[in-house]
């Protein structure tokens, strides 16, 4: 799990450096305050589902960055990641009232990336 998370964080860094700094792109993004223990898995799924919507620079780098987006999307779908990010029982998840992805505030792509990286760091640290 640690290796997969490291790979995802590296790919996210790559995207962050080649991303179009565009304030018009708005994505639903959980904040650090939304990341209660039992809501980490749904928050991660929200980020994963939107990573393909990030705008990346055109040109040579574009293909590599698009590949990075697909790698993140696919890696975070793996069952050991999904199961590993939450130690909560199903009934705890239900009672914690996690928000749906659509109910999070929309933010610009840079804020989205910062929140995504914060969540990955939190998950990574909890695994080490």
Structural notes for this entry:
The chain has helices at 2-18, 40-50, 60-75, 79-84, 90-95, 109-127, and strands at 26-28, 106-108. Helix 1 (2-18) packs antiparallel against helix 3 (60-75) and helix 1 (2-18) packs antiparallel against helix 6. It is 59% helix and 5% strand. It has 128 residues and is mainly alpha-helical. A two-stranded antiparallel ribbon has the order 1-2.
User: What does the overall shape look like?
Assistant: globular
Order of the strands making up the biggest sheet: 1-2
Mean pLDDT: 86
Topology as H/E string?
HEHHHHEH
Unreliable stretches (pLDDT < 50, length at least 5) are none
| N→C terminal distance | 10 Å
**Biggest β-sheet description:** 2 strands, antiparallel
Helix content: 55-70%
Number of helices: 6
In total, the number of strands is: 2
Oligomeric status of the shown chains? single chain
Query: How much strand?
Result: under 5%
Question: What class do helices, strands and sheet pairing give?
Answer: mainly alpha
Rg (CA only) = 14 Å
């Amino acid at each position: 799990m640690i290796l997969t998370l490291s790979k995802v964080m590296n790919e996210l860094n790559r995207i962050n450096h080649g991303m179009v700094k565009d304030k018009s792109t708005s994505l639903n993004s959980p904040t650090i305050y939304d990341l209660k223990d039992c809501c980490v898995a749904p928050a991660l799924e929200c980020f994963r589902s939107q990573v393909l919507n990030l705008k990346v620079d055109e040109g040579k780098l574009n293909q590599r960055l698009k590949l990075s987006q697909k790698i993140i999307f696919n890696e975070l779908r793996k069952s050991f990641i999904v199961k590993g990010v939450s130690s909560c029982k199903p009934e705890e998840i239900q009672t914690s009232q996690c928000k749906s992805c659509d109910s999070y505030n929309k933010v610009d792509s840079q804020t989205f990336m910062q929140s995504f990286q914060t969540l990955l760091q939190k998950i990574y640290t909890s695994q080490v």
